[in-house]
Structures are given as structure tokens and as C-alpha cells.
## 1
Amino acid sequence: MNSPILYWFRRDLRLSDLPGLCAAAAHGPVIPCYIHDTPDGDYASPGGASAWWLHHNLSALEAALEQQGSRLIIRSGPVRKILPALVEETGATAVHCSRSYDPGAAELEAQLHDTLAQLGVAFKRFPGSLLFEPEAVSTQAGTPFRVFTPFWRQCRQQWEPAQPLAAPAELPHPDAWPEGMPLDALQLLPTPVNWAQGWENLWQPGEAGAQKALDTFMHNALADYPEHRDIPGVDGTSRLSPHLHFGALSPRQLAHVVLQHSHLQPEQQASADKFLAELGWREFSHHLLFHFSGLPHESFNERFEGFPWQGSPAALKSWQQGQTGYPLVDAGMRELWHTGYMHNRVRMVVGSFLCKHLLLPWQAGQRWFWDTLVDADLANNACSWQWVAGCGADAAPYFRVFNPTLQGRKFDPEGDYIRRWVPELAALPSKHIHEPHAAPENVLAKASVKLGQNYPYPIVEHRAAREAALTAYQSLGSK
């Protein structure tokens, strides 16, 4: 009973609803560890905003473990070397972890299994970050789903939501602790300029912060979710995506709370179903990435590999900086830069603008979002960008080109969202705030808007950009 088990935290940075941690605690001494591996390759390491979140989530996990009389052993380096070395150092008899579904994870886990088996140590993976294991959901032909609706329908038909597990009452500690490194040594926070200053007032990473955000959503936003989720000027979404990505909240915990709420308040069943479908899109994205590992790099629809993308660095920079001359697009890009987050409806608009107005490749948008989003998730990011570009699974049709001006008028009619993030336009009347370049000179002057000086003219004209996009898409033919 004195031989410890290593619990290897990955993207499950919590203590509750962790089958592997509960199993380890029932055995005896537990040594919790986190290994910061930064392998080469695109998207192998978190972007800047995600690294900020990871630091604070790890800090919260450290504090939670200390309250249990335990501690988090932090190491840095290749997992395939560090983990076996830590096993030999501690005399652990087993390693427990939550399963990962990202490309390369299965290969790493198989290698760890073989390496540890040679040491006489069991390597046990447990489910934890998805509602459904990818192998458990397939078409009648046994192939992966490529369309969301039938995928989610099958998920709901076989859904047997279990009660989430409580955190272990205690975590027995070993006779001796191995050495770890301080969290600050991982250098996850921005330096030398702290571009994330003030984010601690916007976000509370960690399990307690996730529960607080969940409670806020359930009490304030779920009832009106179907109507308010598309309105960026109100708090109508859950903002739980970063908590889910880093595992401070499990999807099973979230689904259980929403289902329980809908049973107690049947009149909110439609709202609950709509929100659960959004959770389903997360499952679908991970399902696709698991089965099609090239998603972050290659168009899911192969014929788009020949798409005539343009490569304008100036246009990309204008988009990144929120200086396109389209207020809703600019508001979204500035919200992203200042908060590490962007409203979902606006994400679709800015994504469509990049791909279909500027004819810039979706991979460029994916890279920018990877570095600037606190909820940057490889599966969600790749699938969403391919969807908006028209080349992904269940994609928006190529001829759907969002008009950012009309989108602004529809979903931000009074300009509340735009006024917040594009303050140079704040004094414009609602009638003109979505299209300042078309406003009369006296209206612009009264609002102190000087086009070409303190706010840009549109970098492309919508009608011409739409025609260019349709011509480019049609050039692919049906091959």
C-alpha cells in the first residue's frame, strides 16, 4: 500500500469527475504530476493567450492539491522520457491519466504503455474530456460521421448520462516527494510586455472559476440562450469554452447540470437542447480530428486544396488589428486582442470576412486564433475555420458570404458591441454606425470620425469582394 501511483495531469486540470484520480486515490499514495512538453511542430505548444490561461489554471490546481495535503510535481521536457524517469525515481507501480484524442496522442500513449510495461508498471488511461469515446460513435457502415446532425442524433439516442464523480475525499501522500520545478519556471506568462494586463479581472481560470462561470450561466443566460446567443452586445453565451478546453470543467459535469435543470424546469427544455447541441459541436469537432488528423493543415474537402487564395500581408495585418473599415469585424478582432475571447456569432463573421472578402487562407485565421484565444482548441479551431471557409465537414456552402454590415445591423442593431470595442465610432448614430463610410459628412464631423485618419475606409468593397469570392469558388468546379 506504500507504493505510489503517479497521476499524470494533461488537459484535465481539476480534482472532480476524474475517474483515473479516484482510482488512484482508492489504491493508496498518489503523486500528482504535470509535464510541460513542448515538441516541435505547428500547434504542439499553446499559443500566447492559452499559455496565460494554462499558468493560472495550474496555479489553481496547485492550490487545490495543497488543500488536500498533496502537491503538484511539475517537470518540463519530453513526456516519453520524463514520465518513465519519474516512475523509476518514485517507485510508482502505476501511472493513471485521462485519455487524449489529439493527433499523435495514441502513438505517445502506446509508446508509454510499452516503456512502462518493461518496468513492470501499469499505464492506465481513463475517459474524461469527451462525452463519447470517438470509437463509440459511427455510421451504420462503421465509418466516421461527416455531418453533424446524424452524429448528434446518434449521440443523444445512446446517451446515458451518469452522475459526475466527486473529488476524492483525500489524496494519500507518499512517504517522500520527488522534486519538482516552480510553476514560474515554465515561463508561460507574457514577457517582457504584459499584454494580458487586466485579464485577471475578466477570467478566473481553475476549477472554482469554472463552477462560478457555470453557475452564472445557468442562472442568468440559459433561459434565453436560443435568442441571446447571437447578440454580441449582451451576456448571452456561457463563456465556458476555456474551462472545458483545460479541463477545469468536464463536459459530463456541464451536461449533467443542464439536463438536471431542464428536468426541474421543463419550460426551458428547448434552451437546454440548443445549448447541449453546441456542446455536441465540440464533440463532433473532436470526433473529426480523431479520425482525420490532417484537419489543422489540409482542407477536409480535397478539391479546396487548389483554391486560388490570395496572399496579401497588408490585408491580413488590417484584419488582425481590427482596421478593416467594417465595424463589426473590427469590434470582434479588438475584443479578441483585449480579452483573449470573441463572441461566437462574430467569430463566424470575421472568419467569413478573412476567407471570402480577403481571399486569405483559413489556415492564416486558424494560426491567429491559436495564438490569441484563451480557449484555443485544436479540434474546434480547425473544424470551425474549415466550416466558415466552406471546405470542412458539414460546411457552410461556398456561396454563403456573410455581409458584415447586415450582420451588424441584425445582431447589434443599436451598435452596443461596436461602441464598446471601436470607441472612435461611439458617437455615431445607430443608423450609421454599421457603415460609417456611407454616413453624411456632417454626421461624421459631429461624431469626430475622420475616415482615413482615426478610422479606415473599408479595405475591400463588399459587392466586389463577394463576386471575386464566388468566381474563385466556382473555379474549383466539381472535381
Note: The longest helix spans residues 269-291.
## 2
Amino acid sequence: MAALTDPIADFLIRIKNAYMAGNEECTAPYSKIKEDIATILKEEGYIWGFDIDKNGKFPQIKVRTRFTDNAPALHGVKRVSRPGLRRYVGSKETPRVLSGLGINILSTSKGLMTCTRAKKENIGGELLAQVW
């Protein structure tokens, strides 16, 4: 298996590909930041939930996708800040996703959160991804 340079993008694309293929779940190597992203996606209604499988040599995170009337809840993801080009935003300058229909995921000093929560707490951070 090849070494990944961007595990967050790999995780998001695995979820998107599971939706596009009509799969009910997908797995990815576990990390704390992936668990936080999955928590945000669950709170926002993009996935049903996730489990952490620690059986085996390396832990895995299993994400259960969500479909409504055979339509995927998640239509697209975009990795904004990447290892080669970081993008930081202030609390008041977060971009809107599809005129407010999607969410931004920010990495702040208080952990991962959506841009609406970051605006309420008046903190900025690294704009990791956009989900719609």
C-alpha cells in the first residue's frame, strides 16, 4: 500500500465514492481527526454514524452512509486546505457553500467545527473542507 500524503482528502473521497457507488458503508484507516470529521458529518446529517474497529493490527473507522429516497445525503466534497497550500480564514470571512446549503469544516484552536459554530465563538482557523 502506498503512503498517503493527504489522509483527510482520502477519507472524504472514500465517503463520496461510497455514496456514488450506492454502498451502505465504507472503511478507512483510523485517526483522531477523521473521527472528528465523521462526528461533524453525523451532527449535520450527512451520515448515519460511524464505528471504530480496533480489532486487527491497525484500527479502522467504518462510516455508515445515509440515503433519503434512494438519493445520497452527501452530493460533493472539496478539500480546500491541503498539505501543499494551506488556507486560513478569520471568523468573519468564511465562504458560503452553495448559498448556505453546505458546510465548511474548520480546524480551530478549540478543535474541529463547522463555520457557523466558529462564527458564534468568534474564532477562525484552517479551512479543511467544504461539504454539500
Note: The first strand starts at residue 25 and ends at 29.
## 3
Amino acid sequence: MPDSPTDTRHAAAETTLPLAGIVVLDLTLARAGPTCVRHLADWGAEVIRIEPPAFNDGLGGAREGYDFQNLHRNKRSIALDLKTEDGKAAFYKLAAKADVLVENMRVRVKHRLGIAPEQVHAVNPRLIYASISGFGQTGPYSERAGVDQIAQGMGGMMTITGEPGRGPMRAGIPFVDLTAGNLLALAVMMALWERQKTGKGRWVHTSLLEAMVFMLDLQAARYLMDGEVPGQAGNDHPVNIPMGAFETADKPVNIAASSPKMWAQFAQALGHPEWLDVEAWKTARGRSDNRKDVNAAIAAVMKQKPSEYWIDLLERIGIPCGPINKVDEVFADPQVQHLRMAMPMHHPERGPTHLVSSAINIEGHESEVRRVPPRLGEHSADILREAGYSDDDVVRLRGLGVINGE
């Protein structure tokens, strides 16, 4: 049954989305796990968020705040106490009919609660059990708690971010959490596809540390294959020059002109063809070894004109370039607006507002806010009735404190 005007408006669309008919139990908290589930919810899965009664997983902020709202759209919520026998029995009734379970508890917690993968698969062998941890499900660090910045530090990211000599620097977004969530969503989809052939579920998992090392990408391969330990390069590309940020008369821009052809075009466009005759700058390695001199020469020229002048000029000759925007400028950008990256939502308390859209495009389908993020336990009674509980059962469980909400 639709739960709000937003639900009513989009209930029909939900049944046509790619993941329509997939039931997901969401036992996640913080950010990495919810990021995974958000992909599934946005594309039509029926997501049941299972939360402890009196719980507020707002990442330190309000449940009605921007962070919780952006992470938990398109879900229903049941407030269920898994530490009680009645609560665990209700959980297993839901798990018996679910397709996917996603959790990011510490390793020992799911065993203590009695909902570890082997226990759930004994009830529903078709279920895809998906886990995110800080450092892996096994190994010497498996019992440690992990958060994004810890993983950035342990995984090498903070030693290759920022300006040389300024010390370690974190990235400006929790990208390890986000990457781990993205990777787990991909693993869920692969396991669902495999289940089409085998009829059996899988335990799929990743960790913040694995996601961080994976995201080192070329910097990791640079070390593994050539033995080079990367350092901080500031706004410059670690090996390709010129590729980085340059001040103009009004605001900085990024340019990427490191290939031999682009370097020649770039020098001509800036009115300095003599740069091509500088012996030390003739090769990519030479420009990299002399990056301070190369960048200083470019900066002196680019400061003479505004950003739009350089963007228009370089774009015409096929050299990638673009402004360095503040967040408000990002959402004012015409291309960002064309891509509808601000997803409209009508919130019952906040009124008309926006969340961050899915970056996945599936032609013929559209992700949108079909359900506003749920209040704690907003759908407890409905979810239990759908699982086979009677009205009297619901009243009894509410009286015992096993559930709360509506």
C-alpha cells in the first residue's frame, strides 16, 4: 500500500524498474552499507530497513537531516529488536522470503546476534548475503572497527593526496565508504545473476581497506610493477605534465595537455611556440622532471585572461579543460542540470527539496524518490502482516517492545 503522496505517484513506476520484485533486507548503518542499498532501492528493489527500536543512525546528525535523507530514500522501515527471541523469529520470517541481505556490522556482532551468513543460508539458501567490514571478514585486523579516514590512512591515500611537504591529507569526501558500497552493489548484482543459473545464493563481501587499495589503481600498479613509491603531487597529475590546476584572471581551471600532440597545440594556443624548442621540455619525462618550471611558465600566461577565455580557446582545439567549481557552482552548471543530478523530493516536513541523483543511466527507466526516507519503524506493522503475522501478534510484539512504530 502506498505510504505517501510521493508513493502514490510513483507506485506504478516502481513495478517496471529493473530490480522490481527483488526483496532486500537492509541491516546497514553509517555510510558504506547504505550506499550499496541505495543503488538497489533507487532501481526498484523492495527494501526493508531493519533498525533497533529507539535507534537513530543519523551519522551524528538528525534523522531528518541531509545525510540520512540522502542515504535512505526508497525504503520502508521496521523497528525490530533482534536481541529478543521474538524479534529474531520475525527477522527469520522476513529472511526466508528475501533475495538479498546487506549488513556492515563488525564481524563478531552478526555471530552474537545469530544472523551470520551460514545461519541465514540454512533458512534461505537462495539469499545473497552481502557484507562490508572495515578490514575484511578474516585476518589479523578483522575484529577492528573501521571508518573512512582510517582506511584512507592505512591504504596509502593520505600520503599521495595534497601538496608535497605539507604532510598527509585526507580526500574531501568519504570516498572509501562510497567505493566499498558501490563495489558491494556490483557484487550483489553478479551473485543475483549467478543465482539465475544455480538457484543458490552466495556470501559476497568487501571491506574499506580492500576498496581503498583497489582505488589506488595506477599508483598501486606503479609500485607493484616498477617499485616506485608515489608521493604527493598536489594538483598535478603524478606522472603526466602539464595536467593540473592553473589560476586565471578570475578563477582556477584544470587543463590536461600532456600528450606530445596536445603539448604542441597547447604551446601554440598560449602564444609560446618557443616552449617546444626547450630541450628539457621536449619529452613527457623531461616535462615531468621540470614540472615547476613548466607550470610557472603556463601560470604566468593564464593569469592574463579569465577562465572562460581559456576554456573556450582550449575546447576549440580539443584540449580537455574545465573550471574548478564550488559546490553551489556545480549545481548551477547547465550540464549538471541537464543530467538532473539534483533529484527532486517533496518531504512531509521539509517540503520541496532535493537529494543527489543516481549516476547510473538505464535508457527507458528513471530513478527517482518513490518513497521519502522512512521514519523509524514507520512500516513495522505492515511488514509483519505481510510476513504472516496477525493484528493480535503485532499488538503483542509492540507491547513487549520487540517492535515500535506504526
Note: Residues 253-323 form a domain with the formyl-coa transferase, domain 3 fold (CATH 3.30.1540.10).
## 4
Amino acid sequence: MFEPYQRGTSIEEARRRSGMRHVIKLASNENPLGTSPKALAAMRSLESLNVYVDDTYLDLKEKLAARHGLRAENVVLGHGSNEIVRLVADAFLEPGDEMVMAVPTFALYRLAAAIRGARAIEVPLRDGVTDLGAMLVAVSDRTRVAFVCEPNNPTGTGAGREAWKTFVEQLPARILLVVDQAYREYAPPDAVDAIEDVGLRPRTIVLRTTSKIYGLAALRFGYGFGDAESIGTLERVRLPFNVAAPALAGASAALDDDEFVRRSIAVNESGKALLSAQFAEMGLHAFATQANFYALAVPVSASHAYETLLRSGIIVRSGDALRMPGRIRVSIGTEEQNRALLAALQEMLTRWRT
């Protein structure tokens, strides 16, 4: 049997379990500012939904491609970037094949491989960072795909440009490199931007999403860039009409909402400065993050910390569910939300240490 994906706790579920009406969700790395206003306006402007969309999605593909000097043939669209992960497995993995990935990282890679009967070769992180050198060593004659989450989820860490350059140069050309950059917009300018490799290395696919910085998690729209041949292979296994008209309208408008992106980055940077300083003062280790969340060490089990915070009306992710024991994953929120988290953590620490 496959190990199912373990989702985070919803606000509704947390209210039922905690008995509290006011709940702060810091579990799923959603944008605390809400949704791009331009995206909401575009979706509200739709007058009807009775006609199927143009399944080529040419206009939006051209818009996405132009932002990176690519062509429409270099773009694939998905019902969230999660769907594209499944498309990669369906198109490029057969029973008995191997896929190299880090651990812990986004669990859907392993699940997608298992469904295809392929074996996931998991390479432990080094100090919370994807160990690209060890991933190269793990490559075998059976390796068909290498999945890298950059910045990595659930640790938020980035591999660094020099290590990345070496990895891309040394990874055998026959292997499909898939780079999940769901959080790239939150990363610093000098962080890895794998889209730069699309034109340099054939068999490279880079995933992006509107779920995070654009605040469109419920809309389910993701996209990928790659060489024309690899993207063409994905298109052959993609189900028709996999992206709905509201998602097309909302995503297209969100991509033009530079002001919302700037505000989201500013709120995230302010939150990082506050939280990193306070975590250190509390004596709690957190990996340096390039995303909009922290992997925070706690002095009790991750599940116990999760349950304790839930009783205080704050939802986080237990590291036990993320193969990260001893840590919780905490999204960066607004200043008010961050301070509520810090107060709850301090209260817990006081109880745990007395």
C-alpha cells in the first residue's frame, strides 16, 4: 500500500478540536495578506462558465514564457504544481526505475514514484540543506529522475548557487532534473533560480505555483518550464481541460500584481527578522529560511508541541508528519499572528522547563 500524503489541519478542523472560534493558521505556508486583489477582480469579471476553455492555454503560456525569455512550447500548466509532479512520474517513470530525492522534502515526490512502481532513493539532508553531492553519489544506472525542492520544504533552506552549479553540471544528461521552486519568490535575489538552467540543460523541468506568494492556494494553479521535448512529453499524458477558466483568469491577473508581491515579500522579511531573533532568544534552533516558513526545533516531541499550540488556537505542522522529528514547521504570518505564536511558545517553554 502507498503511504498517503498527510495534509495539514484546516481552520474548521482546528475549531472543532480546540473549541476556539479564533484560530490562527500557520501550518500550510499560505500568504497571510490574503489574495492578489487583481486576481480576485479578474475572477469576479467572468460572465459565464458554460463553454470549455481553449485547451492549448496559449495566451497564458506565452505570458509566462515571456517573463523568462522562453516560448509557449517551454510551458506546461497544471491543477496546482502537484499535478505536474504526477505528470512527471506518469511520463518518465516505469516499474523498477529509480528516482533520487532528499529526505525530508515534499512527500508527494515519493508518493508519485510509488504509484508508478518506481523506487525513491532518499538522501538525508546535511544540516537541514539538500545534500546535492550525496544525491549525485546516489545516482545509479536505474535512475531516471532527480527531484529537488529549492528552497526545500519543510526546512526552508537553500542549497546555494555554487553547489547548485556543480550539481547541474555533474548530473548525467540522461536524467530528468525536476526542480520544485514553489517558494522561489520569497528567496533572496542571489538564491538559485533554476529557470536559468532550462535553456542550458535539456531534460530540466522547473515548477512554480500561484498558491504561495500570490495567495491563490484554493484556486489550484501551477506551471512548469522546461525544454520543448520534455514539456511535449508531459502534454501527452496531461488530461484535457485540467485548468479551469477561473484559475486561468486569476493566475494571469496575479502575475501582473507587482504591488501585492512587493507587500508580501516585505511582510515576510519583517516576520523573519522578528521570529529569528525571538527564536534565538528562547534558545530554539531554526534553520535559516529562504521561504515563508521556519523549521523550528522544540524541546518535546513535535506532535506534543503541535497539540499544545492547537489548544492555544494556533495551527502549525508537526514535524513527525513531515519526517522531521523534534521540529515543527511554522509559517510566517502577519506581525500580530507572529507575536501570538511567540507568546504561545513562551508559555509552553515556561511549562516545559518548570
Note: The chain has two domains: 11-35+258-349, 48-254.
